[in-house]
Structures are given as C-alpha cells and as structure tokens.
Amino acid sequence: MRTNVNLEDDIHQIVSIYASARGITMGAAIGELVRKAESAGPERPDIRRSANGLPCFPSAGRVLTPEMVKEAESDID
Q1: Where are the alpha helices (H) located in 7-49, listed in sequence order?
Q2: Is residue 53 part of a domain?
Q3: Composition of the chain by helix, strand, coil, percent to 5
Q4: Mapping DSSP to helix (H, G, I), strand (E, B) and coil, where does residue 70 land?
Q5: Is the residue at 40 inside a domain?
Q6: pLDDT in tens, 6-35
Q7: How far apart are the first and last CA of the chain?
Q8: Are 9 and 15 in contact (CB under 8 A)?
C-alpha cells in the first residue's frame, strides 16, 4: 500500500540509517521496525543518544578508550 508519512527529524534519521545499513527502502525499514516493536511487547527499546544526538547501541562489553586506539595504532607502525 502506498501512503505518505510525516516523520520527525530524529525518527527520519534513525529510519534512514537503518534502511541504508540493511540495503532496503525506507518503507521496508519502517515496516521492519514496527514489526520488531510489536513483537517486543510493551517494553520500549533502550535507544540512547550520544552528545551529538546520534543513536547509540547499549553497552554490552568492554569500552574502547582513546588509549586503546593509540596503543593499537602504535603496534601497526
């Protein structure tokens, strides 16, 4: 079904990033996200935003620090 949808800027950004990452259209991305939300039940997904407003994954392990990056870069040289 073809329809028009007005999205807030932050929602448009999330859907656009999701669609691009999956290689699908924005319409298909909206459909997938709505189905995922429906199957998740009454709980809201834990979407956090960084200081510059980008959506972030919840932390699930070690934190990568700038010192770790510098050490890895020095190992390459």
Answers
A1: 9-22, 26-40
A2: yes
A3: 50, 5, 45
A4: helix
A5: yes
A6: 999 999 999 999 999 999 999 999 999 999
A7: 55
A8: no
